[in-house]
Amino acid sequence: MTQRSDRIVVGLDGSAASRAALAFALHDAARRDAAVEVVAAFEIPGYWDALYRAFPPEDSPSLAEAHDAVRKEVETVVGDVTGSLVDEMPQLPPVTVTAVGGSAADALLRAARTADLLVVGSRGRGGFTSMLMGSVSLQCVLHATCPVTVVHTPAEKVEEQAVEQSAPALG
Asked: Cα-Cα-Cα-Cα dihedral of 71, 41, 120, 158, to 10°?
């Protein structure tokens, strides 16, 4: 049996569902007196570019540049979400941010091996927005060694997304 560590891992890609997952993780961590580790995965630069010769290698960002860019973007989102919770949560739990190159599901599953809980949004930035659960959240539910909570996008955000993604009216 794997020992737990008073730590909640949450996946964040900037989508509305992942922001809701972060808010859930922060509330739950405060209740448990646990820390939150925010994990963001990114595609390793250069792999597909080199494979398909889409960009010359000198135009692709380095691994370190991609890592830093993702980390900064995620830290901004974490700041936005924690800032929105200040009134309802006077004491926020400790938060760390980890950016990992590679598959989101693999990064989350690795990070959650010794976690008390893994929290993911129901759908991320993927293209199949009509699905109830995204491929990353499904992989986490199926393969995590700890409990998993899947957080859905708040109802008002779902309505906004539906309007944004609807086809333009004909006529």
From this structure: 80
pTM to 2 decimals? Answer: 0.79
127: confidence class by pLDDT, cuts 50, 70, 90: very low
Distance CA 26, CA 93 (A): 7
Query: What confidence tens digit (pLDDT) does each residue in 129-143 have?
Result: 444 456 899 999 999
How big is the chain by its Cα radius of gyration, in Å?
17
The Cα 11–Cα 29 span in angstroms is 15
Summarize pLDDT for 83-93 with one digit per residue, the tens. Answer: 999 999 989 99
Rounded CA-CA distance 10/82 in Å is: 14
By the 10 Å C-beta count (0-12 exposed, 13-18 middle, 19+ buried), 156 is classed as exposed
Annotate 67-89 with b (16+ C-beta within 10 A) or e (fewer).
beebbebbeebbeebbeeeeeee
User: Does residue 18 surpass a pLDDT of 90?
Assistant: yes
Token duo for residue 33: 């007196």
